[in-house]
Amino acid sequence: KLHSDYYHRRRSYFENSIKRHAYLNSFSTDKDSAKYGINQFSDLSINEFRELYLTATAETGPPYSGLKTEE
Amino acid sequence: LPAKFDWRDKAAVGSVQNQQACGGCWAFSVVGAIESVYAKAGQPLKQLSVQQVIDCSYKNQGCNGGSITRALSWLKQTRVKLVKQSEYPYKAKTGICHLFSQSHDGVLVKDFAAHDFSGREEAMMGRLVEWGPLAVTVDAVSWQDYLGGIMQHHCSCHHANHAVLVTGYDTTGDVPYWIVQNSWGTSWGNEGYVYIKIGGNVCGIADSVTAVFL
Question: How many CB atoms lie within 10 A of CB B112?
């Protein structure tokens, strides 16, 4: 039963990803545009993906204002 | 500026890594930048230890997350030398920090510069050519489904959650783009790379840009 639950959950995430791909690809109008589809993350939920892979934080630096003369 | 530039063509970029089930993108980005700047200075390209940064950069959270600038501040202030990957191999989990003597061979970070280049991506191109590959943060939510091509939509700025390495750019085609090395293995994207449109701060690529000086 445990394996079955796991399978169905993963399958549900995978099916959700297929729906996402259709939406994301609808903006891809030319040959160079990004393509979205099945990859190694397709059976992860959006939250699982965020928790595992989107873990960086950023400290905003000062706006770049060009080089100083001495540089 | 050249219309097309890529530090890979100068043999100054390490191979694409796979962080596996460890949220250490920030460390891969920092170590990638250091490796490249070291090679840019005429030294042989060598793989340095990401695990050392994950374990020892105490102001970050190891595999649970971290920041590029905090890691570089730690390297600069403590003058810890980054050792070779073979001496401190990657384990994809946070471990106890291994210390090396100051006489041990390694790469020392002298300084770094972190700037906001939003609205100034052409200047950022110039800095990339001058300084070397740039460690940046991006909003990578839509990257979960990315297969290849130039990313132009579905990517917000000011919501950074992932760290990567900008190695080059290409403005010769209809859509100019940044060439960005990720750390999710070579089976993701364009052999491990993602292309992001130049202009418009797509994915927030210009929001937090860091260069390393050795």
Answer: 24
Query: Min CA distance, A26 vs chain B (Å)?
Result: 11
Q: Of B44, B50, B72, which is closest to residue B59 (Cα–Cα)?
A: B72
CA angle B82, B44, B87 (to 5 degrees): 35
Running DSSP on this structure, what letter comes out for residue B195? E
Residue B114 touches partner A, C-beta closer than 8 Å = yes
**A56 to B153: CB separation less than 8 angstroms, yes or no:** no
What is the per-residue burial (b if ≥16 Cβ within 10 Å, else e) of A40-51?
ebbbbbeeebbe
Give this complex's ipTM: 0.93
**If you average pLDDT over every residue of chain B, what do you get?**
96
Smallest Cβ distance to A53: which of B66, B160, B162? B162
Buried b (16+ CB within 10 A) or exposed e, B24-37: bbbbbbbbbbbbbb
Distance of CA B45 to the CA centre of its chain: 15
- Judged by a CB distance cut-off of 8 A, whether residue B209 touches chain A is yes
Residue A67 predicted with pLDDT over 70: no
Q: How far is the C-alpha of A44 from the C-alpha of A11, rounded, in Å?
A: 9
pLDDT tens profile A12-44: 999 999 999 999 999 887 889 999 999 999 999
Q: What percent of chain B has pLDDT above 90?
A: 96
Q: Does pLDDT of A71 surpass 60?
A: no
Contact predicate B176/B72, CB 8 Å: no
Q: Give the C-alpha separation, B194 to B191, whole Å.
A: 9
User: pLDDT tens digits, residue range B79-96?
Assistant: 999 999 999 999 999 999
Would you call A39 and B187 a contact, using CB atoms and an 8 Å cutoff? Answer: yes
Residue with tokens 């991006």: B138
